[in-house]
Design a protein that fits this description.
By secondary structure, the chain is of the alpha+beta class. The chain has one domain (about 1-230): NADH Oxidase (3-Layer(aba) Sandwich). It is built from nine helices and eight strands. It binds cobalamin and iron/sulfur cluster (2 copies).
């Protein structure tokens, strides 16, 4: 089953890119598995919010969580470096990756059903409280628990393929045994390692990191400016200026 799941995710990315002429959008996904009973999931109630779901709140007999990251290609990242507004390429990448994550989730659900199991699907985004700007399911904290990376001072999870891309996670009631053995994951943010970077925060165009305190409402206001600016492309509450042109944008720094 593990190999079928990995193959489903990888081939969906390739096929969707090919069928929609989006060959310059994504790199190969990173995929990790976590047990739905992993003790580390308890930190979600502390570091995200007391309302954060546990896997069984989404799928009552949850057994495993599949966490994945779909990294953008370098040209998408480069396109968003200049200017105040998000680039059109970044906007399209956001919209198409959210669509792709939905398709991946649907395919995993079908695969599970074919074998008599179920899947609990979660959208890539827009599952957040618009007043608090906090979700009850944080994909990147799931990826952190899965050992995929560490958090930069711009809040992004930095993976071996950088931070520019999108995360998904899906819960299944099939017991997979391919869990990454819990081991100390090496810090990837240069500033956390030796205080010697901080490029990301300086790139914010609205000073959302004033005094190193991230103001999510200031940030959201700028994301909504892009909704209006790119309304002809689709709904995109995005920005991402503090993710691009960094040592950690497309690779581990
Ligand atoms: C709500 C939300 C927003 C809100 C609020 C953002 C915020 N930071 O809170 C708004 C609309 C403003 C927003 C903006 C953006 N978002 Co957004 N957003 C989400 C959403 C839906 C939920 C995030 C959430 O609830 N966070 C809860 C808060 C409390 O946690 P947090 O922000 O993640 O911050 C944590 C880290 O800093 C972490 N941390 C830092 N150091 C350490 C160390 C340890 C040991 C631990 C455990 C944790 C930790 O602790 C904080 C609290 O726990 C997720 C999708 C999802 N459902 O997961 C996408 C998501 C987080 N967004 C994403 C992106 C890319 C963006 C933007 C760049 C927009 C864009 N696409 O162009 C900006 C970046 C803003 C920023 N600098 O954080 C990606 C992140 C990819 C990545 N590499 O991490 C996600 C995961 C979407 C996805 N499916 O990939 N977003
Ligand atoms: S740009 Fe530097 S300080 Fe910011 S997250 Fe990346 S490595 Fe850390
Ligand atoms: S996404 Fe844009 S507004 Fe939000 S913190 Fe980054 S640069 Fe600032």
């Amino acid at each position: 089953m593990y190999n079928k799941i990995i193959e489903t995710i990888k081939s969906t990315v390739i096929d969707y890119a090919k069928n929609n002429k989006l060959n310059k959008l994504w790199r190969e996904p990173i995929i990790e598995i976590i047990s739905a009973k992993d003790e580390k999931l308890k930190i979600l109630k502390v570091v995200v919010s007391a309302e954060h779901f546990m896997p069984c709140d989404i799928l009552p007999d949850a057994k495993s969580i599949i966490s994945f990251f779909i990294p953008f290609q370098e040209n998408i990242v480069r396109s968003n470096v200049e200017g105040k507004m998000a680039s059109e390429e970044w906007t399209i990448a956001y919209i198409k990756t959210n669509d792709l994550i939905k398709i991946i989730n649907d395919k995993i659900e079908i695969l599970m059903r074919q074998h008599g199991y179920k899947a609990g699907k979660i959208p890539a985004t827009h599952n957040f409280d618009v007043k608090k700007l906090i979700s009850n399911w944080s994909h990147r904290h799931i990826a952190y628990i899965a050992g995929m990376g560490t958090f930069g001072i711009n809040n992004m999870l930095i993976t071996k393929n950088g931070c520019c891309g999108r995360f998904g996670s899906i819960i299944i009631n099939y017991e997979l045994n391919e869990y990454k053995q819990s081991k100390e994951i090496k810090e990837k943010c240069l500033n956390k390692l030796n205080g010697n970077c901080g490029v990301c925060q300086k790139r914010c165009i609205v000073d959302a990191y004033e005094n190193n305190n991230y103001d999510r409402h200031k940030c959201y206001k700028q994301c909504l400016e892009n909704v209006e600016y790119h309304k002809n492309v689709g709904y995109a509450d995005i920005c991402g200026k503090c993710l691009v042109g960094l040592p950690c944008s497309i690779k581990e720094p």
